[in-house]
Amino acid sequence: MPVLTRLIPSPVVVDIRPGALDDLACVLADERISQSGRLAIAVSGGSGARLRDRVAPSLPGADWFEVGGGTIDDAVRLAGAIQGGRYDAVVGLGGGKIIDCAKFASARVGLPLVAVATNLAHDGLCSPVATLDNDAGRGSYGVPNPIAVVIDLNVIREAPVRFVRSGIGDVVSNISAVADWELSHRVNGEKVDGLAAAMARQAGEAVLRHPGGVDDDSFLQVLAESLVLTGISMSVSGDSRPSSGACHEINHAFDLLYPQRAAAHGEQCGLGAAFAMYLRGAHEESAAMAEVLRRHGLPVLPEEIGFSVDEFVRVVEYAPETRPGRFTILEHLALTTEQIKDVYADYVKAIGS
Ligand SMILES: [Zn+2]
Q1: H or E element at residue 156
Q2: Fewer CB within a 10 Å sphere, N or C end of the chain?
Q3: How far is the CA of 54 from the centre of ligand 1 (A)?
C-alpha cells in the first residue's frame, strides 16, 4: 500500500506576537514541554543579560548558561555544562549564534530545543541545521527541528533595525532560490519537492508584497512567520535547496573572498537574488525585487555595501565554487568575466537608480 501522506518534522508550538516572551513558562507547561519548569537557558553574555533580568522572575526553575560565541567548541562546552542537569528542555534565548549553539548542544544531550529568537536576521531560527565556526572555517551540522519557536515582536523591535532588514533579504531570496531549483529540474532532471518549494516561495512572496515596513507589527509578524516557514521548508526537503541558490552562492563568495568586509547575510542574499533574477531573464521580477529591497533600506548595488563593480564581478565569478554540486543560474550560464561585466551593466540600467 502506498504511503498516502507524510509527516513533517515541525515545532509543536509556534508563538509569534508582541509579549510572547512573558508567557513562555505557561506555554511550555501547557504544551507539556516543561511541566516542572526545569529549563537550561542559553544566553549571550552581552545583550542576553538584560533579557535574563526581565525573564528570570517568571522562570524560577531555570538554570542560566552564558554562551561565549558561535563556535563548535562553545556548543560542546554548553552541552557539557547542561549534561546531567535533569532538564526538560534547552532554551536558546538570543540571536543566531546562541540558537545555533543551543540547537547543537540540545541534540547532543538528547533534549528538545525551544528557540526564542531575539532578532529576525535570517531563516536559521527554525531550521534543522546548526551553523557553527570550526577549525576549517564554518560548518553546517544537522540537528532536529526546535520543538517550540517563540518570537516576541516587542523584543524584535529592540534589536538593531539592520537585523530585521537582513531577514527581509534572506526570505525574499527564496523566490530566486526556488527558480534555481526549477531550472535544475528542467536542465538536469533534479527532483523538486513541491511542498518545500511552495512553502519557501510563498514566504518570499508574502514579504515581497507586504505594503508595510520594519516599523509596523503586521509586517514584522509576516516576516517572522515567513522565516519560520522557510526553516520548515528545509526540513521538508531535507536540505537548504528551497532557500539557497545563486543568491546564497553570491553571499558565500562575499564572505569567503572578503571576510573582513562582508555585509549582513540577508543584505548580500537580497542583492544576489535581485541580480540572479536578472541573469535568468526575469527582468521585471528583478526590478520589482530591487524596488522592494530599496524601500526597506537594503542594498541592490555592491557599492551600497562598500564593494566596487570589479569586486562584485569577482564575487559572481567565484560564487559557483562555494557550493559544489548545487546547480543554479550561475552554473547554467557559466559566464566569462567579460560577460558578467556586461550583464551587470545591463542590470544597473534595468533597476534604475
Ligand atoms: Zn540564508
Answers
A1: helix 153-158
A2: N
A3: 30
Give me ligand 1 centre to Cα 266, in Å.
6
Give domain limits for the chain: 13-158, 161-351
- pLDDT, one tens digit per residue, over 213-222 is 999 999 999 9
Which residues of the chain are modeled with pLDDT < 70?
1-3, 353
Quote the ligand 1 centre to 86 CA distance (angstroms): 34
CA 166 / ligand 1 centre spacing (Å): 9
- With beta carbons less than 8 A apart as the criterion, state whether 341 and 314 touch: no
CATH number, domain 161-351, options 3.40.390.10, 1.10.10.10, 1.25.40.10, 1.20.1090.10: 1.20.1090.10
CA of 16 to the centre of ligand 1 (A): 20
At 309-334, the pLDDT tens digits run 999 999 999 999 999 999 999 999 99
Give the CA radius of gyration of the chain: 20
Hey, what CATH class is 13-158 in?
A: alpha beta
